[in-house]
Amino acid sequence: MKTRYSKYRKVIFLLMFISLLFILKTNTLMNKTKQKLNPINEIERVQTMCGELCKTSRVGHPGLFFQKPPKNIDSCSEAVHIISAVTQGKRDSDLIEFVVLNVLDGSVRSNFDCCIYGDAKLSFHRVKAVVKETYPQKRRVVSLKARQYQCFVHNISSPMKHIQLVGKKEFCNSSHIRQPVLYAPVKENKFAICAKIAYNYLNPLHLIEWFEYQKMMGVDTVLIALQQVNEDAYAVFKYYEREGIAILISFPCKLPGNIDRNFEPHKWNYHQSTHDEQVAVYSCKEILKGFGFVAVVDLDEYIVHKNFSSYTEMFKVKNFKLV
C-alpha cells in the first residue's frame, strides 16, 4: 500500500511541476507578445504604476515624467509687458543708436522684433529685439522676469513716437499696446537720484525732509516711479515736481501675471516682487543715463559724508567714506 501511494504521490508532484512550467512559459510568451505589440520602456512602466501621482512631484512643480515641453510663444501680447521704452541719451536725436525696453517678460524664447512708429501712427522700421540684460533668478523660477531688450535704430532719421514688441510671425501695426518712447535727457555735470517706487502710505513730513536734504546735497533731479500713495504724499510729490527737482513716472497699480501681489508687506511675493522692483530700477537708470552722477536711494535713506560734503564733491574724491 505504501509503495502504491508513493507512486501516486510522485505522479501528482510530477504533474504539478509540469503544469507550473507550462504556466510560466505561457506567461513569458504572453509578455513577449505584449512587448512586440505595445513596447514600453522603463519610464512608461513607472508612469503606469504611479498614475496621477507622477503628474506633480510637488505642489507647483512639474513632475519628473509628465513634464510637458514649453510652447514656443509667437505672440508677445500676453507674455511680455513693457513698463518703459527709453532712448540712448544723446543731445542730437539723429545720433541715437538704440532704444531700451524695460519689461516683465514671461516668454520662453525671447525671440521678438521691435516695431517703431512715428507721427503717422504706422510703423516705419522693424528690427530684431536683442536681450540686453536679464535680472538673475534666485532659487525659484519666476513667471515674469525683469528684462531689458535693445532695439537698434541708428538708421532712423524720423522722430520715434511709439514702440512695440511683436513675435516673428506677427505683423507690425497690430493691436498690441504701443509704448511711448521717452527721450533720455543729457545733463553731463548734474547729479540725479533714482528713488525706485513710491507706494502705500508715506509720511508727508518725512518726504519734505528727504527732498530738502537732497536739495541741500546738490541733487538736481529725483526720479520716482509712482504707484498708489496717500493724498498728502502725492501732494508733496507734485509740489517738488512743479519746483523742477522731481520727475514722476507712473508704475502699474495692477501688476501683470497671475500672482496677486503688491509692495506692501502682506502682498510681497519674495520671488516675483523683486523682479517687479528691478524693472522700475531698470527704467530709472535708463532715463537718467545722460546725467554725470546717478545714485539709487530709497525715500527713507540718507547718504551722509563724514565732512558733510555734497554728493558731487564726494564722488570727485577717490576712496571717500560714509559715516
TrEMBL record:
Entry EC number(s): 2.4.1.-
Signal peptide annotation: none
Subcellular location: Membrane
Membrane topology per record: Single-pass membrane protein
Main location: membrane
Enzyme class, broadest EC rank: transferase
Single GO MF descriptor: glycosyltransferase activity
Gene Ontology CC terms: cytoplasm; membrane
Pfam entry (one): Glyco_transf_92
Family: Belongs to the glycosyltransferase 92 family.
Protein name: Glycosyltransferase family 92 protein
Organism taxonomic ancestry: Eukaryota, Metazoa, Spiralia, Lophotrochozoa, Mollusca
